[in-house]
Amino acid sequence: MRGKMRTYLVTGGAGFIGSNYIHYMFRKYGDDIRIINVDALTYAGNPENLKSVENRENYTFIKADICDKEAVEKVFAQNDIDRVVHFAAESHVDRSIRNPEVFVQTNVLGTAVMLNCARAAWEREDGSYPEGKRFLHVSTDEVYGSLEKEGEYFYETTPYAPRSPYSASKAGSDMLVKAYMDTYRFPANITNCSNNYGPYQFPEKLIPLIINNALQGKKLPVYGDGKNVRDWLYVEDHAKAIDMVQEKGRLFQTYNIGGHNEKQNIEIVNIIIETLQEMLSEDDPRKALVSKELITYVEDRKGHDRRYAIAPDKIRSEIGWEPETMFAEGIRKTIAWYFANEEWMRNVTSGEYQKYYEEMYR
Ligand code: NAD
Ligand code: TYD
Questions:
Q1: Domain for residue 225, yes or no?
Q2: Ligand 1 atom closest to Cα of 205?
Q3: Which residues are catalytically annotated?
Q4: Which of 120, 10, 101 has its CA nearest to residue 64?
Q5: How far is the CA of 253 from the centre of ligand 2 (A)?
Q6: What's the domain count of the chain?
Q7: Which residues are CB-contacts of 234 (< 8 A; sequence separation ≥ 6)?
Q8: Which of 141, 194, 205 to mutate to test the pocket of ligand 2 (most atoms within 8 A of CB)?
Q9: Is the N end or the C end of the chain the one with fewer CB atoms within 10 Å?
Q10: Residue 32's domain spans which residues?
Q11: Which residue's CA is the nearest one to ligand 1's atom 33?
């Protein structure tokens, strides 16, 4: 007879990375796991991302805010949770510059609520935790700040130096997780990942924004000189890394996750335009719209971090994880997904998004 079915509590599973992670986990484990997805469905959370799993018996969606202690306590009280994978966050740097408070609320206070509830549910009287209970806090490389010199990388030992309200709030949440590990021996891991791209990414972020605008012949806004560098990772590789850290990682450790795929923003924009031109058929009316002439340099982001680059040595040597999707392949898969999901894009860019776009790029 098989043992008890393992139960995952995923927060923020209706967002970009969370929904990709849930799809990955069901593809990998099928009916052998149960997933409970707690998501407040902010502008960034979209139940459509999970349509293909919503009727599974081993999947439950709960609409709740992670800052709502009673709601989170109830989830732990009613379910024997083995693993927490904590994605829920406000995730967009530009929004954090315009409205920092909600970032502190969700990212810092929300993480405190998650930690407290998990600890209350799991900790035994003698301060130990049952075997197999694990909390994984999903974080970002942006907590390490901005690299200014060529050849420098972020290691797990790099001091934290966040520079945007977003990265400061994520750094705050990481510190709370570290405090729980040190103070209560709380069974957790932190992963700090570089920029992700792929299906279901909200078009406020660079890659889907450029794809969406280019296909409509709209201007392609490039901040500053376009030479800021990000280290891009295909989202499925991130999902796999998270699973491998929970399966094979040492408790209490931080693991950096990155693709060794550094590119300047302007290179990304050029690659997207070239790939769109290759992939669109001659008789597709959008083909004539896609052009490098759409590239428009706009005012730089305030405090714009120059370069991020992860050294993924630790996760490779300890756990055996490596990125599998090369950028040329990943960007084609991503564009193909957006081609096949035009309605998804239409739905997420109607309403609230229009208002954001107009204010942001005015
Ligand atoms: P996202 O903005 O696409 O999704 C966030 C999800 O969290 C949404 O479904 C939203 O509804 C939910 N949410 C927000 N506030 C909530 C609240 N108070 N209570 C419950 N749910 C709430 O974000 P993403 O890009 O998928 O990022 C997920 C996580 O990964 C974040 O913690 C982010 O910091 C981290 N991360 C992102 C990247 C990236 O490139 N996108 C890279 C490294 C780390
Ligand atoms: P983004 O996707 O917002 O991720 P992050 O800021 O978390 O790295 O931005 C990626 C890079 O692209 C960043 O250097 C800012 C830049 N950028 C633009 O040049 N134009 C845009 O319209 C956006 C959204 C981002």
A1: no
A2: 41
A3: 141-142, 166
A4: 10
A5: 29
A6: 1
A7: 196, 197, 198, 259, 323, 324, 325, 327, 330, 333, 334
A8: 205
A9: N
A10: 6-197+233-260+303-325
A11: 91
Alpha carbons 115 and 86: distance in angstroms, whole number: 10
Q: pTM above 0.90?
A: yes
169 belongs to a structural domain = yes
Ligand 2 centroid vs 301 CA: distance in angstroms?
9
Check which CATH number belongs to the domain holding 84 and give it. Answer: 3.40.50.720
Ligand 1 pocket by C-beta < 6 Å: which residues?
11-12, 14-18, 39-42, 44-45, 65-67, 87-91, 106, 110, 138-140, 170, 193, 195-196, 202
Task: Going residue by residue through the chain, which has 362 residues, state the pLDDT in tens, using 9 for 90 and above.
Answer: 456 899 999 999 999 999 999 999 999 999 999 999 999 999 999 999 999 999 999 999 999 999 999 999 999 999 999 999 999 999 999 999 999 999 999 999 999 999 999 999 999 999 999 999 999 999 999 999 999 988 999 999 999 999 999 999 999 999 999 999 999 999 999 999 999 999 999 999 999 999 999 999 999 999 999 999 999 999 999 999 999 999 999 999 999 999 899 999 999 999 999 999 999 999 999 999 999 999 999 999 999 999 999 999 999 999 999 999 999 999 999 999 999 999 999 999 988 888 899 899 98
